[in-house]
Structure formats: structure tokens, C-alpha cells
Amino acid sequence: MFPLLLLRSLLGIQLLMLVSVVLGSQAESNGTVSTIPTLSGCQTSCGDLTFSYPFGIGPRCSRGGDFELTCNESAQPPTLLLHDGITQVAHNIVTADTGYLYSSSRYIGINFPYTIPVSYGVHTYNMSWSSPGKSFTLSFFWMNITGCDFDIYFSDRDANITSLICTLKCPTSDITDMAARQNCNGTGCCPFFWERIRAFNLKFVRHRESSPEVNYNRSSLWDYINVTTFGAYLSWNIVDQPNCASAKENNTKFACVGNNSRCIDNDDSSLDFGYIGYSCKCNSGYVGNPYILSGCSRDRAQQKANCSRVCGHIKVLFPFGIEEGCFAREQFFLNCTNVTTSTLQLGYYYEYYLVTEINIDEGLIKYTIPDDDEGSVNHMSDDDPGIFVRSSESVSLKWVVANLTCQEAQANSSGYACVSANSNCIPVNSTSGYVGYRCNCSYGFHGNPYLYSGCEDVDECKQQDRCQGMCHNTMGSFYCTPCPEKTVYDPTKLQCSSMKQQNALLGVIIGLCSGFTVLLLSVGGIYLTRRWKRNIQKRLRRMYFRRNQGLLLEQLILSDENASEKTKIFSLEELEKATNNFDSTRILGRGGHGMVYKGILSDQRVVAIKRSKIIEEGEINQFINEVAILSQINHRNIVKLFGCCLETEVPLLVYDFIPNGSLYDFLHGGSSNELVLSWDGSLRIAAEAAGALCYLHSAASVSVFHRDVKSSNILLDSNYTAKVSDFGASRLVPIDQTHVVTNVQGTFGYLDPEYYHTGQLNEKSDVYSFGVVLLELLVRKEPILTSESGTKQNLSNYFLWEMKNRPITEIVAPQVLEEASEEEINCVASLVEMCVRLQSDQRPTMKQVEMALQFLRTKRAESNQPAAGKDEERQPLLMKGDINSYQLSGIDFGKKSELSSSQGSKKFYSLEQEFLSTAGLPR
After folding, report:
1. Mean of pLDDT over the chain
2. I want to staple 239 with a disulfide (CB 3.0 to 4.6 A). Which of 81, 274, 277, 891 is the partner?
3. Which residues are catalytic?
4. What is the pLDDT of residues 192-217, one digit of tens each?
């Protein structure tokens, strides 16, 4: 922020100096040259720079002492130096007072460039600067220091303060001194600025020793330390006396000798370190150089025209201007810093306004005040209000064209600002008294009174209600006459019209009003009908919401700290929009319990929306159960529930969209499925599903028994990652319970026989169902198959009987036999046999099943590493992932599991026969 302010201030000071020189030269050309004889023939320039008294070259032409200058004509271009002969003057030295209200300080722009050659073996270098005299203080400076491999220390000699200001780092590539200065960020260049100081030292200490080889054929960054002044300004005062009172007592040395000038104390002792002093200024209404006789002349405005008058969308009318010479006086110069954003700035240095509107008629400037860090306008003193004074409005300024009375201004016709023939002089007052004058167009005219033809006649006849008859415009006024016979005044046309036309117009108006009334009633009826229907729909949705236990579920989701943050209760309107009003083309699948639609939510998430068929009110609890379970589960292999909708007769569930169907589709989809599920893919999907069930049993905050594990409930996403779904039949189980007694539910072929007979649901019931899924992957047959005799047979029963009569290699699917090793087949067959045992306490846990499958995957990955890519010709579904080692516990694949005894087998067969009779069992 500070560099930006500094740039702005530098620009303002330079422009302020230029303004003062222009006014000073104008004053001299108008006969106000100093009457001090010693100034006759004095040099007033050096090269391109100008200066004026009290500064000058030689004691006869200056006030002497600190104000003596030196011009080095031998330099190219010639260099102007201050009294010390070292400090270079960078800009014109302006001592004339322009009457400008923004700053009364005096500044001299200076340079102190410094170059230090760097020698190998020398590690410390110094640079010093002191004020060129008691009259001067370095108000602020900004320098760029270029070099390489130095720590830079700054010392304030008066305050005796030393601090590290920067470390010059070496660039990684060879760059020039100029390139480093353009991007001065510590690499090859350091920026540095300071305020209010009279003397300082810079010390450069080598950061680390560099060898000559490093410096060989390098740029000047490695060979020199360059100090370049970006901007530096001295403030100056007359300091031979401490204040105005002392100076006036010693009248022979009093600096404010100009007629109509006054003395101003410099009361900022912190700035000048004890040398307070004073400065001079022209009285209100006068401008010029107060340090010479007749230097202050009467204030007046000057005319210019034919200039650019727009800054963005803001009109800049004369006497204001945005180009040199296009304004009546220097105080009316506005800086258009950005046309695109209409940034119009009034003022310089740290004090300025951002102008938003210029009102010539009212004599007002509307503005905004920038942020305090960017500057604000100085207080306007009551005894010298200047050209601008505060108005009664908080965000506007009143302005005058000169600090003169109307009589004084009109007496000098060449300087009178109200040049339009139809303009008036308007006196302007502030709370402290008279300020000056401005101009305004006479009554009946409008425009710009500061231009010769600026005030134009106002055509009052174009204004409504001026006359109730015929209107006649005159220069600056108007007059009215009655309408002729058989005519009447038409206020819409602002003229007299015949009565027939008026009657016809009246009929048209009546017809339009009638038509509009009918149209309004029709639109109102349609609107009320639609609103009535919407109200009915809203009441119906609220009824369904309450009947579907919406309040209970909403409270459950909000109060349960384990529920997912993203679980949401959707409105029916949202889901209708997502599915294009449940369009038939959006149906993903149909089943015995309803349909699943594909939807796209407003946040572009693709979802699957489960819309069940009519269910009994008692099954609502089952629906609530599924939502409650899924809202507490967050696992990568469990389908994500986004939320539900309770505003329909049958609730809707919103899931993450799983694009590749179910495992059942891949295993038993027939020719419709072009992809083949490889053995590697089978093991991975089985391990992921087992991991999800293990999480439900033992890792979730509340144990969950799925109760309907089957291949059609294992979905595959876009990466063919397994996702366990359909928790409508699941049960939450407290941690301290091993089982729950419930009505038997499940799918024939996967249902645990022990659970069917006892009604006791435990985690081993899911193990049995998963064993059937694992068996499907092994033999690639459906859970209920048809024998050669045409009878229905359970897949697990079929497998156990076939294992007694044939080797396993004759039972498994041909594809599995081709891809899997005999050892892997035996291991999976043994795992299946243990999962589908009749007694639940003899089955492994899901954790043991998952570890066994992960062990097989790891062992297979190690043995098949050289043969990677063998199955690519078969279009495998699965990508190889990272294999983690698992240590099996409690499951021994070293020997074949023994099947049940003959007696037990008969008993098992008897149970299966009874189990087959339950085909109509609800899931």
C-alpha cells in the first residue's frame, strides 16, 4: 500500500511544483516581478530545472546559506546541486503559492545515487548521507539497492538506531541490474523506504564468501552495489528564527516581504528535529511568490475550451478539466486515473477526493472519501477556505471560481468567469463568512455559464402544465393564449386538438380499459386456480410427510451425531426436476418392489432414486430403518445414501448412482453382458464386499446385520468397485447383544437355515449368505438352480453334495478352472463350505473371511507377477490395486475340510427340503 501512496504523492508534488512555476511566471509576465534589485539578472534555471527566490545561485540572488544552489554545467545534462554540493535536485524548486488548499508544505525532489565497487576479500562496505543544511529534513525517501550476497543494515544517526532491513540474495541466473530493479523482491534487488530523518548510514555486510570463479563473467550485480533513488523529498523552512513572532521582531531578516503575504509557523517539531522555523504564504484571494516584493497578485480565473470532457461516465465541464490548459485555474484540474472505472481524482499528495459528479448549476462536487490508508482531505481552515468549502451535504463540496466579490470580478473584464451573455454572478458564503463567487445561467436559460455560448434558452412549452391552451416560447420566457373554438387542450400532446378527435380518443381509451379489465380478470382467475391446486398439493404432501414419519426421521438425522452431514430430506419438487417428472426414459431397473430412476440434482450430482410400490403402513418402519442405518454408515464399499423424500404416498430413497449394475448381472446376465468377470476381479469384489460386511458387524458405531446379502445387492461402480446396497431388511444391534429375535426375512437361496428355524438373527446369518455369493463366483450358477430332473435345488445344497461325489475341479466354472490355480480353488471351496455350515457357531466371522480372501489375493499377486497382462485379452473388469499382506487366524487351508457325517448329511437334506417349501417367504 505504501509504495502506491508514495507514487501518488510524488506525482502530486511534481504537478504542484509545475503549477506554482506556471503561476509564478504568469505573475512576472503580468508586471509582478520582484522589486528587490539584487534579483535583477539572476540565473533562474539549470539545464531543464527551474528555481526561484529564496533559492538562487550566488548570495546576491538567494537568501544565502542553505538556499544557495550550484549548477554543474560540465555534467550532461547540467546538474543542479544544493548548498552541500552533493545532493542533486531532481525537480523544479517551487516557492510560489498557488492558493491551493491541499498542502502548505514545501518540498524539493532530490537524488542521491551511489555506486560501490565490490572487491574480492572485502566483506563490509558503507554509505552515508546527511541533510544539506538545518533548513532541510528528508521527509521521505524510497530507494532500490541492487547487488548480490549482502546483509544491509540501516542506522538513524540522530536516533542512534540500527536495524537489518534486507538480505540481498543472488539470482539463480545471470540478470542485469535493470532487470533486477524492475522486479525488486530481494533477489538481486531490495526496496527500502523511510520517513523523517536528517542523517543515516547504510552498511553492507557479505552474507557468505563468494569465490572469483563464481563472479567470473557475471553481470554487474556481482561486481557493484548500486543505490538508486526512486523518490526522495526534502521539506524546507526558514529556520534562522524559531517562529513568526521572532522573525517579525528581527524585521531585516524577515522572509515574508511580499505585499499581501503572511507568515505561517511550522509547529511540527518532530519533523524538523528542533529546527522549527516558519514559511510564507499569499493572503486569501492572492497567488504568487510571497518571498519577493509584489510577488502576490490578485486571484482570477482564465478560460479554455475544446478539450476532452469525459472520464468514463463522468462529465467534466469547464471550468474543470482533465488535460493541461483545459481548466480555468490549477485548482480545477482533475486527474482521470482510470477511464474504465471512471476514477476521477481531485487533489494531490496524501489528500484527495474521488469525484463522482460535477454539478455546474448548483456549484457542487459530489465525491467519495478513500480509505484512510489511501489518504483523506485535510481540514479546511475557516480563515482561509480556499477555492473549495464544505457544503451542507456530507459528501459534496461547494466551489468558487475566485476569492473575489462579484463587484471585484466584474471590474476586471479579462478575468471575469461568467462570460455567457445570459449568466449571473452568484456570491458563495461559508459558515465563517464570504468565500467568493461562482456563475449561473439566468432564469429561463440552462447550460454552462463559463462558456461564451454556454447558456441556452429553455423551451418552457415542452414542459407539462405550463399552459391550459396554446404555449408560445420566447427567449428566456413564454406566454399562453386560449385554444381556438371547437378545440380543447390535449395534455398528452401539449397542444390544442379538435373535440371529435378527443371523443374518438376517449372511445379508444374506454375500449382499451375494458379489454385490459377482461384480460386482468382472466389472468387473475387462472392464477387463483393454479394457486388453489398448488395449495391442495402442498397439503397432500404435508399429510404424506407426517404419515411417513417425516418429523421422526428429521429429528433422528439432526440429533444423531453419527449421521452423515450430507443426509438430506428432499422435497418432491427437487426429485421431479431431477428425473424430468419421473420420465420413463430415466428408469434404470424394475423389480418386485418398485422402480429405480436415474436423476441429476441441482448441484449436478447423478443419483439413483428408488421408488417403491404401494406398501402397507407397517412397512414404513422398515423404510425408516433403512434410512437410519445408511445415515450412520460411511464406507467406500457401501452405497452412499444422499437422502429421502417423504412427500409421496410411498417414500423415495436417493442413492449415489452406481452405473455398472450388480454382481448378479455380471455372473448370470448371459449374452447381454459383453464383459467377462475374471478370477482376479472375482476375488477383489468378494474381498471388498466382505470388508463392508465386516465393517457393519464390528467397526460401525452400532452393529448392523444386513439380513439380505446376495449378489444382486452387491453393485459395481464406474471403477467396478463393490458397493453393498439395500438395507431395507437390516437391523441395528446393540453392542452388548450377539443376536436379535425377529420375523424371518431374506431371499430364498441365501437365507440362513438356522435363522429360518429359530428366528434368531446374528452376524453369522450374513456369513452364510455371503458364502452363497462366494459360491456363485466359484461355480457361476444361480442360487436356485434347476436339476436335470426339472426340480428346484438350493445352490449350497448342490455344492455340498457334489463335493462328496466329485473332485472340486469338475464342479467349478470352466473360466475359473482356466484362470485359478487348484490350490486357490480348494481354498475358496473350503471357505465356502465353512460359511454355509448349518450351525452358526461353526462358521467363521466376516473378519476371518475378509482376511482369508485378502490372503489369497496377496498370494496370487506374488505368484502371478511375471504373468501380468495375461487376462487382458478377456477384457477383465478389475484393475490391479495395492496388495496388503494379511495373516490368517482361525482358518486353516492346509487340509480339506471334512464334510458332515452321513447322518448329519441326511438331517441337513431334511432341513433343506423343508426350507424349499418357503419359496413365498417375503424378503
Report:
1. 77
2. 277
3. 708
4. 888 888 889 999 998 765 554 454 44
